[in-house]
User: Fold this.
Amino acid sequence: MNTHVDLPGEQPIDQPDKTGPGALRGEVWLNVQTYQAQSLIKGRRGGEGKPAIIGLVGFAERLKVLWQAVRSDDPYADWWLVKVEESIGDVRSQLHRLQDQLQAVLVNVECFEVTFAQSSRPQRVSLQFANPYAFRAAQMLADYDRMVCTWMTARHLGLALPTEVAEQANGSGRWLRRVFAFPQSYQYLEISRSDIHQDTARAVKARERMGDLPQEILDGEKLPSLRPVTFQRASATCSPACQDG
Assistant:
């Protein structure tokens, strides 16, 4: 499959000059080595007593709603994106630490010259995302895939792993599933910062369903590091701190 996709940038608000350059196009692929990582791309439908599992694709779809809500100055969407960004960063840090611990065990095996296990037929996945956080999540999935390869190598060699390391490697897929499921808890209520300031019925409804909004999010003092450019240009309610993002 050779699919052209739009890069995750934003088009200017003004109508582009038809005589100028066209839209940027590019291709992004993810090579997946392990079944564990492959199963987290599309996730699993619920049924027959098994709960649904949100995968990378479902995560990316839900992020579209958050991204568009940020354009409408929804502070709850900002808050959810902050939490998405932080959770991806936390999981990647955990995976890197686990990877280092596994590699340290393999390096200490003096009798073997070891290369990490790889699939004889890796899955090549075309990533067609319109949101930069979906690509960050794909990087997280790649980190997980690499860690599983290292873990499987250690198990294949019969190496004794520290109990904590083995338990974390065995359960690390849950870390990613929690991240992928998190945007599902956001509810789009067509709310804006103006609604919060005026304490409208929509603001009350949002507070009941999603909790009290942190003041630093409402004031624009803490925002996602990546936000739609068109919002930054067009919003009249965004604070000066918001405009720096």
Remarks:
- The beta strands are 5-6, 25-26, 29-32, 43-44, 53-54, 123-126.
- Residues 1-13, 232-245 have pLDDT under 50 and may be disordered.
